[in-house]
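Researcher: Please predict.
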Amino acid sequence: MEIASRPKILSSVAIRPYFQKGDFVLYNGDSIELLNNLPENSIDMIFADPPYNLSNGGFSVHAGRMVSVNKGIWDVSKGFEDDYAFHYRWLEACRRVLKPEGTLWVSGTYHSIYQCGHALQSLGYHILNDISWFKPNASPNLSCRFFTASHETIIWARKDKKAKHTFNYELMKEGEWPASSWNRGGNGWFRNASPQRRSWATLPCDS
């Protein structure tokens, strides 16, 4: 989880930084514990990449070799109710620290993103966009009994429905106006007409 804010805000956290360089500060720890140490209404934007719960003992193919899909115990589903409760808790912690106009980006696959979307709406977030993020290097469809899962979904939401969030219009209108379908290649998120690669630091909500 990336928490975008000024160092003076993060300096109140009673957890030692894992890495710091200039204005960039990285903390390594339980995300809910970290969020609970931040003051209310202090954060402009959060980008969250929560567990997708894909580790089910299965296997896939990568670079021509059979590989396990297991990432760790943290990625194993605990059942619908427990998985949903987990997403609700961390999204609730995010909502407390976000400013009224603050925004949240959540990425996931169909295994987790719908639970996140339901929890977001239950907590009172206002959903701005859902984005289809195409993956050209998606895992192959070994069973050939359904469509290849070749995208992830990103939900962009604002804390307060009536607040005015940041959207970098001048940056976004360069080249072709970005749509809600992204084609990611290499380390870039999407290209504009330049063709300039963009990273998370130039997402439309970045202040």
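Model: The radius of gyration is 18 Å.
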